[in-house]
Design brief:
By secondary structure, the chain is an all-alpha fold. It is built from 16 helices and 2 strands. The chain starts with 22 loop residues before the first helix and ends in a 6-residue tail after the last helix.
Amino acid sequence: MGSVVYHAGLGLSSSHSRLRLPSFRIASLIEPSVSSRWQVLEQVDKELRKRGERAALSLVKDLQARPGGLRCFGAARQVPQRFFTLDELKLNGIETSSILSPEDATLGSIERNLQLAGVLGGISAWNVFGFSTQQIFYFSLGLLFLGTLDSVSFNGGVSNLVLDTIGRTFSQKYHNRVVQHEAGHFLIAYLLGILPKGYTLSSLEALKKEGSLNVQAGTAFVDLEFDEVVNAGKVSSTMLNRFSCIALAGVATEYLLHGYSEGGLSDINKLDMLLQSLGFTQKKADSQVRWAVLNTILILRRHEGARAKLAEAMSQEKSVGFCIDIIEKAIDEADL
């Protein structure tokens, strides 16, 4: 899960068209014949399917400005930004240690069991086939080489694919956790004004869509504005705040549901790397993360029902436009 493409894990990576669409093109997409919200969202889905991220974002922003359009896009109430102490977070029912130190017990257990099975299988093969010590050595060396190759060339993509597939097959808890985690990323991004452009809920699905083992399951976003400010050599506080909250949305969702987080370590690492690249001191980085944790959790608490309905839609592999419509229907204007 991993994934501002933000892969949820936040991956703020992906290729986007840099060409600006002519104004007549945008207008042609929003004629009265497609004036209803759902009809426009269907157009958004079509643009996203053909990688027209800029056109899709233009459609969403146009619909946002219409009466009865997208009331929730970028409309979340947020906490004023300041330095929050750990005690203040605790007063809001937040234990940061349970959020920011995720450890995937499910996949960890599967990995240990596979390692144990491999050792036992090797011993059995040694006894049955009478392998020599030298043959066992060369076989172990080959496995070590393959593991190193996977780690270096595919960033652990092969092992992640195997573990994730086994986890989804044999653990309903793991499957549900991944869905809720990605729903958290999707919902927070949308409410903060970042358009999701797609999501995958398994490493196998990500491999089929992206054709690369380096891409893990996660939620991807139309991050044109983020790319532009990064390329310009600066990141505004507004964009950084959005990035921070989206990055932490998955672990925050897991914390609210279970009291701790298991997935999302890559999300946290990416946020840490960004803050380091911006030259943040440890104190300033802590302040940014604490504010983002509090802000994200309060938004998720306020819109728990919307998150649950969104997760259900995502588990059914509904389109981005359908998921947006679910959010809009689930949140009353007074609740924003």
